[in-house]
Write a structure and sequence with these properties.
It is a single chain. This protein has 132 residues and is an alpha+beta fold. The protein has one domain. Helices cover 29% and strands 16% of the residues. The protein has a 3-stranded antiparallel sheet. A hairpin with a 2-residue loop joins β2 and β3. The two termini are 12 Å apart.
């Protein structure tokens, strides 16, 4: 999941557009070129379900749970240290990583990490990944 999304972000920039109401697409957006259902994910989280269901869609049901993502972009090219510093500096992203606030007790059972060019993506799941 993380690799597929980081590649889509780097190659197709789905985060650079807007939705039909003129709201900016965020890093959780997917392009039509990704092979997945395209989505312009906006900051109001109105399309959260379309992002959470991506692991089932991308794996054609092999992964049975929902996925939750944190993502980062750094215009000069990203590495693990930069991405981690960005996420740690964001209360919302840090809460996902540390299972705090609304994420307390989540018990992440699956995780995927990818870096591609300017993008870093981490996917978390509550269900173990059968592909390990």
């Amino acid at each position: 999941m993380a690799h597929a999304h980081a590649r889509d972000l780097e190659d197709h920039n789905p985060d650079s557009g807007t939705d039909g109401d003129g709201r900016r697409c965020t890093l959780h957006s997917w392009s039509a070129a990704s092979g997945a259902t395209p989505v312009c994910y906006t900051a109001d989280h109105a399309r959260a379900q379309l992002m959470w269901s991506k692991p089932r869609e991308i794996t054609r049901g092999a992964y049975g749970g929902q996925g939750f993502e944190i993502a980062a972009r750094y215009s000069e090219g990203i590495d693990a240290d930069i991405a981690f510093d960005l996420w740690r500096g964001s209360a919302a992203h840090n809460a996902v990583i540390l299972e705090q606030g609304r994420w307390a007790g989540t018990g992440w059972r699956a995780m995927g990490v990818a870096l591609d060019g300017r993008y870093a993506v981490v996917w978390f799941g509550k269900v173990p990944d059968p592909a390990r």
